[in-house]
Amino acid sequence: MPPSLPHLTCELSGLADVLACGQRATEYATAHGFPEHAVWELGIVVSELATNVTRHGGGGRLTVEYVTSPVRGLFL
Question: How far is Cα 9 from Cα 21, in angstroms, rounded to an integer?
């Protein structure tokens, strides 16, 4: 995923989507130059959140956005 993409959006309706979203989020963070420990933690957070959205909310959408102001980071 090229760093020029400002955000990543995952549609969530089942377990396969949860797994794919976690993987895509880690690739997104890696492409934006985040350290390995932050990428690993993001993968856990996204997987947990995506699981809850799917299990308790019946599905939905999760967006990860790369931000640079006021500090560099990822916004869920």
Answer: 8
The single residue listed with the structure tokens 């995923």 is 1
CB 39 within 8 A of CB 28: no
E-only strand ranges, the chain: 7-12, 60-67, 73-75
Cis check for the bond before 2: say yes or no (omega within 30 of 0): no
pLDDT value for 53 = 96
Q: How far is residue 22's CA from residue 75's CA, in Å, rounded to a whole number?
A: 15
Name the percent of the chain lying above pLDDT 70: 95
Contact present, 59 and 72 (Cβ < 8 Å): no
Predicted confidence (pLDDT) per residue in 4-34, tens digit:
678 999 999 999 999 999 999 999 999 999 9
